Amino acid sequence: MNLSAKTVVVIAIGAALYGIGGLPMFGIPVFANTTLKPAMAVLALFGVLFGPLVGFLVGFIGHWVTDLFAGWGVWITWVIGSGIVGLLIGLYPKITKQRIEKGIFTRWDFCLFVLLAFLGNVIGYGTSAFLDAVLYAEPFTKVLAQLTIIAAGNTLLIAIVGHFILTSVAKRKQQSYNLKEAY
Q1: The model's pTM
Q2: d(CA 141, CA 147)
Q3: Helix (H, G, I), strand (E, B) or coil at 35
């Protein structure tokens, strides 16, 4: 795998924004060690704009940064979960054939974005919950409650913030896409 300098910089910026934005002081506590993080919108945006590899690495590295700075130690199970969320949302440009790059963001595109966010959260943090139950003997009911709250809350948060951001990105791209050279 050969990453360009631009891609490495994008990953570093995304991971830093997601990592710092994921700290408890920026989140909304909802359940035992469970916080809704507005930084999830950052993860979704980087996945949508730069694809699955960047989405995975922003989620993985960013969550690692959150855990390190929060002081509770790195929970690798949840670090992996955030990576999976970013990876699945990062499938968006491939599925839509880069429509957002052409300035197109329809209702169908938005529904697909929300579906990928939901699937990413359920599969990603479902993996985390399962691994917590198996590796750390966390109570199944606790991790299931965490998963349910996180999947619903993060999907809603990503949908609301993502709609505004992606609509703006599409409008901006449309303006650039329609530029013609003056003669």
Answers
A1: 0.91
A2: 10
A3: strand
Q: How far apart are CA 77 and CA 63, in angstroms?
A: 10
What is the tens place of the pLDDT at every residue in 147-179?
999 999 999 999 999 999 999 999 999 887 666
Distances (CA, A) of 34 to 23, 24, 110, 166: 12, 10, 27, 27
Burial grade of 165 (CB within 10 A; 0-12, 13-18, 19 or more): middle
Largest CA distance in the chain: 70
Closest CA to 113 of 44, 14, 53, 50: 44
**Residue in this structure with the two tokens 């957002």, named with its chain if needed:** 100
Q: Own/partner pairs for 148-151, CB < 8 Å, 24+ apart? A: 149/30, 149/31, 149/34, 149/36, 150/34, 150/36, 150/121, 150/125, 151/118, 151/121, 151/122, 151/125, 151/126
Q: Whole-angstrom Cα distance, residue 122 to residue 155?
A: 9
- Which residues are within 8 A (CB) of 79 and not within 5 positions of it... i.e. 6 or more apart? 60, 63, 64, 67
pLDDT class of 182 with cuts at 50, 70, 90: low
